[in-house]
Amino acid sequence: MAVPAQDLHEEPRVVLSARGLSKSFGAFLAVRDVDLDIEHARVHALIGPNGAGKTTVFNLLTKFLQPTAGSITLLGTDITKTSPDKVARMGLVRSFQISAVFPHLTVLDNVRVALQRPNGLSTQFWLPTSALDRLNDRADELIETVGLKRERNAIAADLSYGRKRVLEIATTLALDPKVLLLDEPMAGMGQEDIGTVSNIIREVAKTRAVLMVEHNLSVVADICHQVTVLQRGEILAEGDYATVSKDERVRLAYMGTEDA
Ligand SMILES: Nc1ncnc2c1ncn2[C@@H]1O[C@H](COP(=O)(O)OP(=O)(O)OP(=O)(O)O)[C@@H](O)[C@H]1O
Fold first, then answer.
1. Distance 2 CA to ligand 1 centre (A)
2. Which of 31, 46, 64, 172 shows the smallest number of beta carbons within 10 Å?
3. Residues 185, 63: one domain?
């Protein structure tokens, strides 16, 4: 199944790209010569079997790991040697960077705290709650975007697992990322939450690029415009889901089933 063209709201253009990206751990080459183009207003999936190098590519793109070779460009700027906090400030945000939900705070306060972070990597705990009041409108907007209006004043610890993950996405969106990287956003979720989070990702990708590692192939088929398949650190195939799922090498290497 291909994501319908009418889902594309803004002109796609490359916002994040990698060329010849490689990473060795000692003698082991975990990522080999990877070229990637991530486009604005699109959801791009990175898939592949366990150990294919997906997390390593994420860590390279967000600068948590330094590449052994290759280059990375974000919004026209070479970020190959830029620090993770600087690339976060430039708009490349990975969900776990700020995904710590404070269990004792309400949904609203979690989002307000996220909104006052300068770059998602630190929090000014000494700010009085009153100083956060000016953030209420934006916080409520985000809470509405992710569908947490009913839980606005609930304590985060009381939310279900799925709703907590949704709150994490809201706190990530508080940084207004231009490129959002999500590592297995559906992991551990039930069908209903998967539907909700799929809708949120579809919605937020109308105005930004999303790159996600995802094992759930029906989610990939449902919401991803572009799919890159990694195997043993190398790109095996690329294209829309309909194309890569028909690729015999992909079926053999990764999906291996008739219904993939
Ligand atoms: N810090 C490290 N030191 C040594 N080897 C590593 C390191 N990080 C990852 N690797 C190896 O690199 C390869 C790719 O790992 P990576 O975690 O990127 O794969 P993945 O596709 O994310 O896998 P999974 O789907 O299981 O999370 C694996 O063989 C892994 O053991």
1. 30
2. 64
3. yes
